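Consider the record:
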Amino acid sequence: MASKKFKPSVKSTLPFKTGNRERRHKLHIVRKKTLDNTRRDQRFRRRKEEDKDPRLREERLRQNIPLTLERKRVWDDVDRDTGDGLGVSVDFERLKRQRLGEEAEEFDEEEDQVDQEEATEAPISDNDGDSMIDSASDNDEASQAPAKPPSRHRTATERATSPTQSTLSTNLDLTPSALATRFPTLFSTDPPPLPKTLITTSLHSTLHDEARLLTTLFPNSVYIPRSAHRHSHKYSVREIASFATNRAYTAVLVLKEDQKKPTGLTFVHLPAGPTFHFSISNWVEGKRLPGHGRPTEHNPELILNNFRTPLGLLTAHLFRTVFPPQPDFQGRQVVTLHNQRDYIFLRRHRYVFREKRVTEKSVIGPDGKEVKGVEGIRAGLQELGPRFTMKLRRIDKGIQRASGQEWEWKGGMEKQRTKFQL
């Protein structure tokens, strides 16, 4: 509780304005102490009330949701037929739920119409008077029934809440047909070939160790240094892509640098593109991670999180093409690509299933509830590295001689902070 010796007056919390610097400083100290004591009294009073009634604490914690930028995310109001553009921020999961809801409503309306037609075609009974009396009494009872209470005004947190959880896995089956038609090489109906990746760097690069580290991240990949000798031919990305296509490679990765640090990663999908340009930040090698493990040559499992827009689904399909469809479960390695606010966080772990300790909580699903059937099981993770953050900057048409001549999508055109593209 507040100190009994200190009893500030009501005027001590008023915003005084005085020209005396010392008096202004003393008033600020008194005002701050008063506010701190008032808040402390409120916390103690709330704690006593919640100890008597635990439901108050549950209600407070339920409403105490931080209003983050992710929860303020807005979507474009478009139809499911027009939401196929790369610059449109539309959630296909939500459109699917809306379509299912509309179909269910139409089905219910058809059933009600059929019931009404059957009722009108039924023969009239002899007890018409009694039925009319019964219907009148039913109408009176319906009119006397209490009206529904008005809907409660939603708070800013509830209004800004994202329609779906941000930790849901990406559903690649929701890819629109218009997007598949626009990029036929990424959405081929034929079974995908085994990924084979050629990794190289930009000219005059010093990131040889980082490029070799990427060969352990992407299966079936080879690093070929890009020569920059003055008497040698400086091959362009287009010539490298042609060389890789003739040798059955499926993708080319170009690692870019600035001040001897990785700053960009270019994905060239073979044989005819498109080309994806990513910027890289927060590069950390595996040996610098505390408690890190050593990766093996097993094919990892791939987890794609929170890619929901047309551009996000296109990016998810690109990452799927550089990892084998059949992972080696014996290696227990998993690569996670988590999208949040258009930043793609890449992590690689080794997992192990073990018994849950007494002090640990049970596994919680995306809906916030405990997953049934695995109450006594927990998963232990050991990060293998490397870890870095990517951000999509541009998608070029095909494979060009100079980057940025013709592009399918270009970042930086959206100025609204609460609208995300992936």
The CA atoms of residues 191 and 337 lie 23 Å apart. Confidence is low (pLDDT under 50) at residues 124-137, 156-166. The longest helix spans residues 21-52. The first strand starts at residue 197 and ends at 201.
